[in-house]
Amino acid sequence: MGMHYLSLYMPRASTTSDAFNAVAEPRRREILALLALRERPVGDIVDALGLEQPSVSKHLRVLREVGLVHVRRDGRRMLYRTNADAVRPLHEWTGTFERFWQHQLSRIQERAEAHMNRGPGSNQTSQRRSHDVDPSRN
Fold first, then answer.
1. Under a CB-based contact definition with an 8 Å cutoff, are residues 42 and 78 in contact?
2. Which one of 60, 68, 69, 91 has the fewest beta carbons within 10 angstroms of its own beta carbon?
3. Is residue 42 scored above 50 in pLDDT?
4. What is the pLDDT of residues 10-34, one digit of tens each?
5. How is the chain split into domains, by residue range?
6. Quick one: DSSP state of residue 88?
7. How far is Cα 65 from Cα 4, in angstroms, rounded to an integer?
């Protein structure tokens, strides 16, 4: 018999509601990364990322509205830069996952080293630890 899924519609928060929603868009993350290196005018961002100028301006407006980017006027040019203080909560939150992945990568490295130490002709099987996934239990 087929399974029935209940689909609930939850409206997505506005991209300008907070920094997390703003950086959900990959191009905005690219812009932030580019601006982290140095202050730039819109034209430099357009050239560096190969995006259309209106699109870059729209993304910069969103990033400015949530406080992730500062802008200053230099004559006729507007120069944009990342606001490091506003990016800090994003960095701290993602740090949680960085620790998780570091743990996972350490486990992979341990297994690879153990496999190499056994030698290529070894018939030894690795012992499963209690927290490893058992593929036969699917």
1. yes
2. 91
3. yes
4. 455 555 667 788 888 899 999 999 9
5. 19-83
6. H
7. 41
